[in-house]
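Entry 12.
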Amino acid sequence: MRTLLLFVLLIAGATVAPVAHAVTTCAVTAADASLPFGTIVSAGAGATGTLNVTVTCTTTAVSVGGSAGVRVCVGLGTGTGGSTTQPLRTLTNSTLDPMSFQIYNQANFTQVTGLTPGGSPAPKQLTMAYTAPVLVGTGTASTQLYAQVPASQILASGNYSSTFSGANVVITWGANEQLIGSVAPPATCTSGNAGSSSTSGAFNFTATASVAPQCGSYLATNMDFGTVTGNIGSNIDQTATLTLNCLKRTAYQIGLNNGTNAPAEGTARRMRTTAVNNSSQYLTYELYRDPARTQRWGSTLAVDTVSGTGTGSAQQLTIYGRVPAVTGQPAAGTYNDLVTVTITY
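Predicted 3D structure (tokens):
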């Protein structure tokens, strides 16, 4: 009798499901679309500003108990106002006059905000760690960038700006992702077990500043028609000067009033003296804008004033005066008048 032994070999096999690859994406928003420095009223004064930004990162397909740690770099380029990041960035006005400014990572204005992770200067860095309890996790971090217009610049009046968009605003992020338990952010924005990504044109903003038109001190010399003995048989011509200093691009108009001795009606300018009988005696004179003494210098804007544009340096203007010939003998005495100069800008 033969016995047959039958063996059934059972091979138990297990199919291992692949680990789903997690995906982390980040986006940044600015609280405002502008970084305003406001109006710089005093020539050479500085200004400061802040830009509030918020970064939001989302991680999908980790696991029910998964988590992510993310490091984000917010990078800024030169902006449209200039071509350099260091030592200073540049704002420009409509006539391309420059204004230096800078954006910093820290409130003490020491660490310049750069564009490229690992570069010098470095971008602004933020970190966040969060869980993904239902396959999707979201983390948010907010921060400020600090900006400054240095003082003691020679500026022109006008509205200045520099726009940051496209390749001038880049965010780069690296992520560590964990199926179970918590995980810390990677050491850099370009590392992490899930790799790194970047986005150009992450958000747009414009840095702005205004410089108010301004004219500083001015100096006027006296107009001395001299001493006359006897009659005034012909015109006496003399000049005086007015020196003023206005910011570059500041449009101004200069007016001269009719003096303190002008009659209640009319525009005649008169010098006055007190005669021996205590009566007031007058001598007519006039002030002009041109050497030919045909254009009277008055105080009506855009009519008989003198217009100009500031250069940032002292500018000297000439006032042309004339005492016309007088019929008869003027009373003896010292004649004078006080004229007020008005600068409108």
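Annotation: Residues 1-20 have pLDDT under 50 and may be disordered. DSSP finds no helices and 20 strands in the chain.
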